[in-house]
Amino acid sequence: MATIRVPDEVPSPAQDSETLNQAFRGWGTDEKAIIRVLGKRNGSQRKRIRESYREIYGKDLIDVLTSELSGDFMKAVVLWTYDPAERDARLANNVLNGKKKSIEKLKIIVEISCTTSPNHLIAVRKAYCSLFDLSLEEHIASSVPFPLAKVLVTLATSFRYDKDMADTEVATIEAGMLREAITAKQLDHDHVLYILGTRSIYQLRETFDVDGCPGDADLKSLLQMVILCIEFPEKHFAKVVRDSIEGFGTDEDSLTRGIVTRAEVDLMKARGEYYNMYNTSMDNAIIGDVSGDYKDFLLTLLGSNI
Amino acid sequence: MATIRVPDEVPSPAQDSETLNQAFRGWGTDEKAIIRVLGKRNGSQRKRIRESYREIYGKDLIDVLTSELSGDFMKAVVLWTYDPAERDARLANNVLNGKKKSIEKLKIIVEISCTTSPNHLIAVRKAYCSLFDLSLEEHIASSVPFPLAKVLVTLATSFRYDKDMADTEVATIEAGMLREAITAKQLDHDHVLYILGTRSIYQLRETFDVDGCPGDADLKSLLQMVILCIEFPEKHFAKVVRDSIEGFGTDEDSLTRGIVTRAEVDLMKARGEYYNMYNTSMDNAIIGDVSGDYKDFLLTLLGSNI
Hints:
Two copies of one chain form a homodimer. By secondary structure, chain A is mainly α.
């Protein structure tokens, strides 16, 4: 369930564009107005605002937001304003273009591949080709070391059957195969990859039910995340938010990603899981950790009335 | 280039539906009328006819064609009338449901994966899920032995960048990697698969230019076909037609597949290649090998005026 709150009466895209344009004009920028407009519109509404803004003012709203705003607030608003498929393509591209492709960064590709719908993942791959002149899987295969590349390509190219059906017998057999691969420490075995990469989410949940969970450290950590993302995406995102604010300093990029990418998907559930897992509220944790317009924007996406 | 000839003035879908319905009525069926209508309409026109037929007569045109016609003629007309993505999904499903999945049959999946556009291949995978309640790659991984399954999954899940750009340096490096894998007889090496499965067609053509060509027998034969399909799809289809009519007896299913699936794509080129490769015309070869309505239908798709 989504957390954003769209008002009962939504202004036309042209009116919203005008409000935004007013907010950009003169000395200083009216950040509150930007939060009020963009933070309370769903994906298709934002898309129409971006189109309408271009029509009226001849500029890409993303470019204007980038130049008028700054810091983590700017990054969050821009990420939110992208079309979701373009957004994920850009998130993946940042990882693959990064000099240091740590396992933590690579997990963003697992996240995109395993917590979104099959049709969304295809849309991400299409966006990737048009934005970056190569395919997502080509970029992974040519820039990530094996066997991690193998796992990531398998997941990123999946188009899982997405109806709620599972074959218990198959689940038992495949749980056995997974267990065997774990015991033999052959986590990159082709059978493991094809089970995790081609079976439907529902079939896999049945398989994971049969079995416990897995046991090279990077590969293990990646596969554990695959399983978590598939089995409990909302727990995964509760963890993303928690990890980003826990301890000394904040990982704003991860926090933004967690909130922005799920605000229209299942952030309500992730918020519930957060409470169950950490015995404190996600909203309060965010309030205690970040500040200013950035904080207000994230809370708006979480459904608060700022 | 396509071979089918759409008349300058095309009747409305409702008129075509009526002509077809007339052809089905009474004793006997008017096969010539069916050829004249369906054999001279392109994909979107046939789609509209099928929709209109359902609206007017409350029946799926495919079902009526299946019951009114018979033999290879029926199979060819039905295959032609399907939406191209549904058609390829059904062709692949026939292979994967077959008890004996010979390497010749499995090559149909290579053909679908390597000779069609990235967007078409995605449409085939979507059609596969909605028609058969599992994903194409899931069906491959669970029913074809390794390492063939590995190659087929990699190809079937590809979404290649499809602009005409190639990096010569990458081509040289990857041609070297392919050569090495061939020498070491490690054709199922992950690097081979990711080169063949993720690089764009244009990049791969550059790579094959640098290198010669490859040399377990089934795997070799499959990969040679991958290369042929990618480098010269029209030569591949000339060969499909030739192999289907050569020697004793005809392989009507392959002949139908070769003509029907390419009549709107590149059959004109394949016909030219056929002449270059075998020093005889494809049309005459077909005329000499098959007969009746089936022959007339294939020739209509080849652009003849029957």
